Amino acid sequence: MADILITEPIESTAVERLRMGFDVVVDPELWRDTAAVIRQIQTCRGIIVRNQTDVTQAVIDAADRLLVIGRAGVGLDNIDLGAASSAGIVVCTTPQENAISVAELVLGFMLCLARRICEADRHVKGGAWDRHHFVGAELHGKTLGIVGFGRIGFLTAMRARAFGMEIIAHDEYLNASSILLAEAGARLVPMDDLLMHSDFVSCHVPLTPETRGMFDARRFALMKSTAYFINASRGQVVNERDLSTALEEEVIAGAALDVRQAEPPSPDALARRDDVVLTPHIAAFTQEAQSRVLHAICDDVTRVLKGGTAVNAVNFPFPQRENKQQ
User: Fold this and answer.
1) What Cα–Cα distance (Å) separates residue 102 from each residue in 60, 153, 231, 321?
2) Based on the domain organization, do 39 and 105 belong to the same domain?
3) Is 65 a catalytic residue?
């Protein structure tokens, strides 16, 4: 009977270290079958997931021995946090470990959009050489609007400053006197002002009832016709039909999306557009970030199962239920 269940493709030296102290079962495809997760979790004291496993009320109800849920990443939209907390189960994440990689991808997106790198690449590989078709723009002197100024937003701003960009930010939970804003040289502005004045809008918010679908036709209409929209947070914060219409009607100039409303997405109008850059949810997928993420989450799970406290718990640092040893 397993101590720890891992339901997605998660293998690293951190997992090997877990195996030295616990019975660990890794089933990379288990996330596809919630019923199978429910069967296997009944004897487990810990589970580690990424973003594809739905840790629902039913899963939690079946897990009488479960003490800790480790989310290898940041978002919690696939975990029923309320049900876990009611059951006394610690939920922990890795809030800092992938931030650099996400911020760097956003800068890559901005360069691709401004310099039309992906289009030019396809052009040349197709046998053509019309450089006059690819007159781009500099990032220097442009305004970057960051929606959600947490760790990732802050690191994105710091990197954009190196390109000589002006930074404005909107965050419902941040005070204008925040040291993060001061360090990044950013100004906190109302959402509508950010959209109207930004040359690039980059989204870094969690998925909540308030943020779901927040980027819709009304908000795209506020943006400059020369502006670009970037999303490396959660796909569901964007109304993709409205985004597609905004691009088709030249309300905005282009977009880059690392996340989609449905993953994997069905072929759609966005995928056929030259002014859209699409990647398959790779923002945190660098060797360095994945190493940090997996070591951090495995360390927290180990701490909890050995009677200690989690460093990155989002509800409480130690279980509120009896530790039933196998």
Assistant:
1) 30, 9, 10, 36
2) no
3) no
Same domain, 84 and 130: no
Tokens of 199: 């040359």
CATH number reported for the structural domain that contains residue 39 in this entry: 3.40.50.720
Q: Which of 234, 260, 292, 303 is catalytic?
A: 234
State the pTM of this model.
Answer: 0.90
Active site residue 281: yes
Q: Tell me, yes or no, whether 157 and 140 share the same domain.
A: yes
**Residue of 29, 263, 288, 322 marked active site:** 263
**Which residue is catalytic, options 65, 281, 292, 303?**
281
pLDDT tens per residue, the chain (326 residues)? 689 999 999 878 999 999 999 999 999 999 999 999 999 999 999 999 998 999 999 999 999 999 999 999 888 889 999 999 999 999 999 988 999 999 999 999 999 999 999 999 999 999 999 999 999 999 999 999 999 999 999 999 999 999 999 999 999 999 999 999 999 999 999 999 999 999 999 999 999 999 999 999 999 999 999 999 999 999 999 999 999 999 999 999 999 999 999 999 999 999 999 999 999 999 999 999 999 999 999 999 999 999 999 999 999 999 998 766 54
C-alpha span between 230 and 107 (Å, rounded): 10
Q: Is 295 annotated in the active site?
A: no
How many CB atoms lie under 10 A from the CB of residue 311? 12
The answer to whether position 322 is within a domain reads no
